[in-house]
Amino acid sequence: MRARILTLCLVALVCGASAQAESPNMTGHWNLDVSFAAGGQHSLRFDAQAEGKGTLQLQDPRSKVWGAVAPSGAKWSLDEANFVTFSGQVEFLIGNVGRDAGMLTCKGKFENPNLITGDVDFSPLVGDRPSKHGTFKAVRANQ
Predict the structure, then answer these.
(1) Is 83 in contact with 89 (CB distance < 8 Å)?
(2) Are 89 and 101 in contact (CB under 8 A)?
(3) Three-state secondary structure along the chain?
(4) Fewest Cβ atoms closer than 10 Å to its Cβ: which of 51, 59, 101, 115?
(5) Structural contact between residues 86 and 104, judged by C-beta atoms closer than 8 angstroms
(6) Are the beta carbons of 116 and 27 closer than 8 angstroms?
(7) Do the domain assignments include residue 82?
(8) Cα(6)–Cα(77) distance, rounded to whole angstroms?
């Protein structure tokens, strides 16, 4: 009886360890909602491709005022603890007359295979303006 209980415990331990060792699948299409602490919310699409490559594309309805929004190159990485970082250049509209170009960097963790949450930073590429900080939520798109 003891041997049977010990065997069951070992099987449960091995199965649990192998389930934890599996990394979530980062590749695919993600709908990204960004909220900055100082105000401002944006929607983007992040397409994660193999080998840490991808694209970011602004999806805000206002962004189409200036024509079609082209995706920009992005990169991503995933560590053993299911922490993910992805970044790329984006341009947010400033009113009706300008654009705020910068580097968007998201650092988060998989909550489940279809949800990543974490912190976001936007560093302007031009001028001496401070970075913007906030939070993001990325939900895997159904495509």
Answers:
(1) no
(2) yes
(3) CHHHHHHHHHHHHHHHHHHHHCCCCCCEEEEEEEEECCCCEEEEEEEECHHHEEEEEECCHHHHHHCCCCCEEEEEEECCCCEEEEEEEEEEEECCCEEEEEEEEEEEEEEECCEEEEEEEEEECCCCCCCEEEEEEEEECCC
(4) 51
(5) no
(6) no
(7) yes
(8) 39
Return d(Cα 23, Cα 105) in angstroms, integer.
21
Radius of gyration of the chain (CA): 20
Q: Are residues 131 and 121 in contact, defined by beta-carbon separation less than 8 angstroms?
A: yes
What would the pLDDT profile of 112-136 be if each residue is shown by its tens digit? Answer: 999 999 999 999 998 788 899 999 9
Would you say residue 99 lies in a domain? yes
Find all residues with CB under 8 Å of 81, minimum gap 6, and list them. Answer: 109
Q: What is the pLDDT of residues 1-22, one digit of tens each?
A: 555 544 443 334 444 443 445 6
Q: pTM here?
A: 0.80
Domains identified in the chain, total number: 1
Which tokens in the block code for residue 26? 């980062």
The domain containing residue 52 runs over which residues? Answer: 25-140
Residue 14 resides in a domain: no
